[in-house]
Amino acid sequence: MLNFKKLKIAYRTVILTIVAVTSLLVVSAIFFAERSVEQGHARKVAELEAFDRSVSELDTLFLQVRRFEKDFLLRKDEQSIANHLRLSNQLLSSIKTLETQINQQELSRLLTAIGDSYSSYGASSISLSQQTRTWASIRIQGLKGRCANPCTTWRRP
């Protein structure tokens, strides 16, 4: 084994310089690797926050669409149907946008299933609104329940 004390000072200095430079390179490599991992995690956190905001937006849109559907069933006005259709289209486009943003296959399949289910719900909602339009629309005025336009004929859907 090499005795470090018997070496000349010039050789010792060269060996210590090589060890110091190698140590600095290793520490620099560790620093840069940690920095790239940290940036990757920050990017992933930003993606998840954007996904969370999109899901919250979808939740709000689902509630608003349901509210306009209930408004139509109660009031039978055309404005509720127009708002329902507008929000339904916005909801479906938001689902499609979210599907393209997601890299995970399971979540993408889940969003596709939600979109398909919502499309079938939209079709049944349109069918219901068409049937409701064919029925006699009775508007109730006041607390005593007098009919504004009494129903004289009723057509079965």
Strand-and-helix sequence, N→C? HHHEE
What are the low-pLDDT stretches, counting only 5+ consecutive residues below 50?
none
Number of helices: 3
What's the pLDDT, averaged over the residues? 77
Main β sheet profile: 2 strands, antiparallel
- Hey, roughly how much beta strand do the residues contain? under 5%
Global geometry: rod-shaped
List keywords for this structure.
mainly alpha, 3% strand, two-stranded antiparallel ribbon, 157 residues, 2 strands, 77% helix
Task: Describe how the helices and strands are arranged.
Layout: H1 9-75, H2 78-101, H3 105-134, E1 140-141, E2 146-147
Antiparallel strand pairs: 1-2
Helix pairs in contact: 1-2, 2-3
Structure characterization notes:
It is a single chain. The chain is mostly helical and 157 residues long. It has one domain. The chain is 77% helix and 3% strand. The protein has three helices and two strands; from the N terminus they run H-H-H-E-E. It has a two-stranded antiparallel sheet with strand order 1-2. Strand 1 and strand 2 form a beta hairpin. The chain is rod-shaped, with a radius of gyration of 34 Å. The model has no long low-confidence stretch (mean pLDDT 77).
